[in-house]
């Protein structure tokens, strides 16, 4: 019981992100301005239990390959780029693009296979199931979430 409790507490703690700062300083010699700054992170998706299994009464389940859900948090992303000086002596400022942390959910594709046998229809063969035409289908992948991006211009910090 203690092992299950510690595993349950460790799962949310392991759902962290690795910070990433994109090094763009090498562009400064070829750009007529400071290089933009890009800071983000790498999300760690957490897999869930497969969905779609159904309990059947004496029959096979309809879902042959279930979808596996993943949840995670997209990291905060900030792009801070200086605006070029268009007019001499003007203060152009900086362009800021930011997306806050946002919850995302996804699911892998799955497959559905219809039962090869159906319940007896009572047409003379008492109690024997009938054969059914093969039915195969695919469950599409799924991604859901909401991004709340913000774009603006900020005055130059001194």
Topology:
Blueprint: H1 2-14, E1 18-22, E2 37-42, E3 46-47, E4 63-65, E5 69-74, E6 77-82, E7 94-99, E8 102-107, E9 110-113, E10 117-118, E11 130-131, E12 136-139, E13 142-145, E14 150-154
Antiparallel strand pairs: 1-2, 2-6, 3-5, 4-9, 5-8, 6-7, 7-14, 8-13, 9-12, 10-11
What does this structure look like?
- The chain has 158 residues and is mainly beta.
- The protein has 1 helix and 14 strands, in the order αββββββββββββββ.
- The strands form 4 sheets. It has a 5-stranded antiparallel β-sheet, with no helix packed on it. It has a 4-stranded antiparallel β-sheet with strand order 3-5-8-13, with no helix packed on it. A 3-stranded antiparallel β-sheet has the order 4-9-12, with no helix packed on it.
Give a quick rundown of the structure.
By secondary structure, the protein is mainly beta. The protein contains one helix and 14 strands; from the N terminus they run αββββββββββββββ.
